[in-house]
Each structure stands twice: as structure tokens, then as C-alpha cells.
Amino acid sequence: AIYLGECRTLGIEVQVPDVNRSLAEFAPDFTAGEGAIGTGGDSAGAITFGLAAVRNVGEALVALIVAEREAAGPFIDFYDFCQRVDPQVLNKRTLESLIKAGAFDSMGHARQGLFLAYEEIIDRTLERRREHDAGVMSLFATLEEQTEGQTTGFADTRLPITDAEFDKALRLAFEKEMLGLYISDHPLMGLEGSLSRLTDCTLAELRDYDPEAMAASGYDGGGIKIVGGVITELQRRYTKKGDLMATFVLEDLNASIETFVFPKTMADYGALLDDDAIVVVKARLDMRDERLKLVCMEVSRPELQSDGLRDLHISLPLGTLTDRSVHDLKRLLSEHPGHSPVLVHIGDKVFRLQSEFNVDSSRGLVGELRVLLGPNAILS
Hints:
By secondary structure, the chain is an alpha+beta fold.
């Protein structure tokens, strides 16, 4: 989560695993750099998620996928994938994991639609491959392929794959289950500003909490903080006395912290605990074992409203920025602090400003920018 947060800040895209692009390990993909924004205006490229890091996908199977891709080119679609890869790869558990992780997204298949059809497609493909190896051809499949100009003997394996898609919450829950992280999106994306108004600090800031330094500065918070995030890895269990308690990992966009809910608090707030639920937690900080943990005291599930957070793009013709206008632009952005990153387009170069210049563009900033930069500036 920390590395993903840093990549988002730097404008480096981290892509879900892809059977047509990924290797076994995580790898840079500079061909994806167009449109990806890095510091200094340079193309940041992307990082492809390693296929071997997907749950239930081993390195041996990845090697078979990559070998076929390198030998005969990218896979056209899921049917082409099933017809070409070694039969060992057509393990339903493995392919279910790849589908949930988004490894076939680039082929244009919706995850839910593919999830509903993949088992029968695999069964039919394996049957046709066995028949093909034995010299047996289906009469109807052969006639159909002759009509379509094909000669592979796999026409009847092309069952329709619908465009149905999982809703965002379920899609991300499956992604988290398979990858251990939210990659393509995050339940908190676009809600950061709304959540921050209900909390004392982010989890990343809390991770750096130093009780002695805080006490020396006169802080008298008693080691209690209000933080927010998404519940992951929720586990309920019973104490030796038979009382119900829970543990979970509280995660935001940049960090995660283990959290304990003891029986008394569990009795009051246990009904609010669910995997992938967004919560605000009042918690006592526990520094035992030299590792920060949270002991939950109160839990709420707020109705967060999207702040409409999106990048602010400022497009300027070449030669329009002077030292004075740069100074005025920095001053104006600093007067509208918020959570939306600012990207400045100058000619064919794009510069992503440092996070200290993130803005709230909902309170008149756009109008002030138009006055400052003149009619040649394009704001979006």
C-alpha cells in the first residue's frame, strides 16, 4: 500500500496483471509511458503486476503462458488463450484467480461476463483438443468453421461472453483477494477529502507517531486518535472466556495498521464490522512489541460523499510562463489547498506539480486561474 501510494503521487501507473504483458515478476513497462506523468515532465511509464504474485498462480504455469506468448504473439481473446496455452494452464482454479485479478481485461472481456462463462469454455476447449489430438473432428464444428473461414476445429468453444460487470465493491473485493491489494481502483478513491474531515490524521501519519516526542511538545492526547480507512482481513474469534472479539487491518490509500476489537467494544460495535467496509475508528495506540497497533474504542460507518476529486489540468501555450506568472500561479494554488493534483501542460510536455500544490478546485479557483492566466489557458 505504501509503494502504491508513492506511485500514485509520482504518476506511475501500476497495472493489474495481464496475460499479454506481464511477466512472472513485477516489471517496468515504458511502452505505457504516453500519458503517464512523472516528475519533471518525463514519461513515468508503468509497472506491470507480476503474474506469479496472483493467488493460485505458480511460476511454472506463468512460464508456459509467457513462452506461448513469445512464440506466437499476444493472445487475441480468451478463446485464443485457451486454444493455445499448454493444457496444464487450463486449471479452473488458476483461471478463476486470473479473471478476478483482471488478467484478461485488456482483451475487452468484462470480469463478471468471463467469470460466468469460463468453466464451460475450458471444458469444451479441452474436449476439442483431445479430439483434435486423436484425429476426431466434430462435423458441425467443421461445417461452421468452413463457413467462417477457420480450420482449427474449435468453433463450438466460442460461447458468448456477456458484457456484465461486477459492481465496484465486489470487483475490488475479488481483486484484493487475488492480489492482496487494490490495484485498478480503491474503495477510498475520491473520498479522501471527505474522510479527512472526520479524522485526526492519515494512517501513514499515524505510523510515524512518536509518543515521547508528542509528550515533549505538550500534546496531551492520551495516545488516542481518530482515523479512517477500509476494513480488510477481518477475523472474528472467541476468547478463552467465550467472549467474541475481532481483529482486522485498517487500510487507507497509503498505509495499513493492525487493529484489535476487544469483547466490550465488540458487543457495542461488532455489527458494523465487515470486510471492505469504510469506517472511522477512535482507537488507543498500542506500541508494545515495538510495532504500532490500534485498540478500537468506537466505530462508525460514515456516509461519505465524493468530493468530485479529479486532477486539475492547466494547458498553456509555449512561452507564456514568465518568472512573475510562475510566482503568481504558485501563490494562487497555495491559497486553495486540497486533494486534487495539478498537471500543467506546456506544448507536448506535462508536469505534475508536487503534492504540496494539490488544490480544492470547487471554491472559485478555476475562475481565478482564468483571470490570472488569460484567455489562452485551457483548464479542465
